[in-house]
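Hi R.,

Here are the chain sequences for the assembly we discussed:
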Amino acid sequence: MDSRQNIKRLLTLGLILLSCLVLFFAQGFLSSFNIRILNLAAIFVILGASMNLVLGFTGMFSLGHAGFMCVGAYVSAILTMSPASKELIYYMEPIIPPLANVHWPVFPAIVMAGVVAAFFGFLIGFPALRLRDDYLAIATLGFGEIIRIIVTNTITITNGSLGLKDIPSIKSLWIYWGFAIATIWILKQLINSSWGYAFKAIRDNEIAAEAMGIDVFKHKLLSFTVGAFFAGLAGALMGHLITSVDPTMFRFLFTFQILLIIVLGGLGSLTGSVIAGVVVTVSMEFLRFVEQPINLFGLIIPGIPGMRMVIFSLLLLMVILFYRQGLMGTREFNWDWILDKLGVARRKERGVA
Amino acid sequence: MELYLQTLANGISLGSLYALIAIGYTMVYGILRLINFAHADLLMVAGYIAFYGIMVFALPWWFSFLIAIALTALLGVSIEKIAYRPLRNAPRISVLISAIGVSFLLENLGIVAIGARPKSFPRPEELVWNIKLGDISFLSLTVIIPIVTLLLLVAVTYMVNKTKTGTAMRAVSRDFETASLMAVDVNKVVSTTFLVGSSLAAVGGILYSLQYPQIDPLMGVFPGLKCFIAAVMGGIGSIPGAMLGGFILGMGEVFLVAFMPELSGYRDAFAFVILIFILLFKPTGILGENVVEKV
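And here is the predicted structure of the full complex:
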């Protein structure tokens, strides 16, 4: 057994323990507002990683993420709300009978939200993935809008523009970060499998990939559907975090924020998406102060609503214009790099068996 | 019958507005192969400049409109110089991201600078009045918009097909490199394209604000998307195609709302559904050319 392998295994174990410890203390000592921000960060990590799979690893410019989130949020909300509160909330028009009495536990509902979103992704991907680049972008953007408009208009299922309230609340960091870590792990396995190599081949050159015998359409559809699954999952979590959903929530703004995260983190790096997901979400909350009046030594500066998004759009432009690879490029976090830096020798390269 | 005529008039008016804006998309796409997401926001910029010209600086309406067109055109050219030109040899996804970034920046700068609350756009009396024809009455705009559009379309078509600049534009849209080998100044041609496209967007934005006199920082988003769809429908890169697509889309939308009111909630989805069908069955659009990607 290679000693380096052992070191790496120990380090990974240590990291898992450390993150559990951090979560434990965060759960115990942080204020509920800060926990909420961390939960939001977990959701954006899931969103960033899943969109990165589609855009960064497979090279498909899909802008429909907000639409899939919308589907997921509604599915989980409708499944988990109690029949009593459904009766209260659907006062304009009652909900259709089969849905009125379902009352699922939270966990299967969230997974179901992902499955339904994936099904939508499959349906949409089937026609749309024949398109490329800009056409795909505009078509998926269109699908995202169509989903939103349908949700607004199917009142007996979704309560229309009034939205849903009283969704069972989840506050625990463990659940959000548990889902986030599971997402990253699954995506990492997928990307390092032969499927993942095919995705990257398609991204780098579609025609060459096809010539090498890769079924381009099948792989694109897989990537898109998996992306939609996790977007639905994240949407469901979002619903449980803020306990209410309405169709205007899932506007293009969401997709933009996710785009910002993956560009910042590096197109094609899960590590980058995780880092940027946390940094963007936290700084988004931190920067709230620029939109509120500031009292600076008696000088009152009025808050400017919308300023945060100006800052973030400028940031996106700067990164894409001057530092296109983002934070991580296509590199990933790995122990080898750290061990090399620390001077732990690789045995095999020295020729010792 | 009256309803029919009324709807037809509205359809022509909205259709020509869409056609005007769609040309800007199609010209830019034809040359750079890029969806200029910021094009939609130029409508808003033009609307607001005109608004401030009239309401704050008390300029005559025509002068304020001229200034709005000039400044918007300038903005369009600068956007290309700053955000698109450095990425000309980058992967296409980067340029698209940059375009989305610019669009978002403009919208949010709009919110920061002028607030998210809608403002009511002034309608000059010389330009907007009621016309009564028998039993139907309509705004003068219903006539003015198609006339302005027609004039501009003739001008643009002439420019693209008959002038030297137009020839250069067509050459660049065919083949970037060969055109530059033939001593065509590619950068100048691209700038001219943005100048023309953005001016058309500005005119479109002003007419749009007159027709629907409520302006807000996000007013350009939906008309912009629809006009892009119109351009795709007609065959992107083709100017007559953009006009045709604009008319079909505008007409279709107005008729849908007038004759199937129960579907009017789906008004904005209508355009996307059409787009998806077009892309699936005839991705090159009605008048587009078939281009096969080679290795």
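The interface with chain A takes residues 29, 33-35, 83, 86-87, 90, 92-94, 96-98, 100-102, 104-105, 108-109, 111-112, 115-116, 221, 225, 228-229, 232, 265-266, 268-269, 271-273, 275-276, 279-280, 283, 293, 295 of chain B (CB under 8 Å). The longest helix of chain B spans residues 2-32.

Let me know if anything looks off.

Best,
T.
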